[in-house]
Amino acid sequence: MNDVDFAKASIHELDAEYTASLKCLERIPETLFEYRPHEKSMALGYLALLVAEIPLWVYHIASGNDIDFATYTHFQPKTTGELVDHFKSNQQKAIEVLKGIQDGDLVGTFSLKNNGTVLHSEPRRDSISSSINHMVHHRGQLTVYMRLNNIPVPSIYGPSADDRTFG
User: Fold this and answer.
1) For 72-112, how does the pLDDT look when each residue is reduced to its tens digit (9 = 90+)?
2) Other residues' Cβ atoms within 10 Å of the Cβ of residue 156
3) Which helix (H) or strand (E) holds 138?
4) Domain at 100, CATH number
5) In this record, what's one Pfam family (predicted)?
6) What is the pLDDT of residues 6-43, one digit of tens each?
7) What is the reported pTM?
């Protein structure tokens, strides 16, 4: 598969996951951003932020940029609305950069670094795919946190116990 077709497939996948992710994020109240189900668990707000920010990772990867934790600044939403708007913006950035991909643009590797030290490196295509999978994984964790807090879990790939409709 050439880079253009890969980018189109990635756009399709991001679009397919968008609605379910948005439905989850819209239901996360800022009053629970600090909630942790266990002392070793990440905070609900940070977990929701990961779901909202991973499309931005796709943007950086597709743009040819590495991410260095020493210089990468996480957005710090104070409200659910800010979290949702951040997700929408990041999704749009990822889609737009992928729409502009030409053959040969995804050659090379993406590296995740900490203060210049490479923590993880992989081909850019693989990194885009794994980032989308990573978002879906964290959204799954998010639904567990939602259930633990009696936040209705939306339909994801089919009806949930809280939302018996499709869509």
Assistant:
1) 988 999 999 999 999 999 999 999 999 999 999 999 999 99
2) 18
3) helix 124-148
4) 1.20.120.450
5) DinB
6) 999 999 999 999 999 999 999 999 999 999 999 999 99
7) 0.93
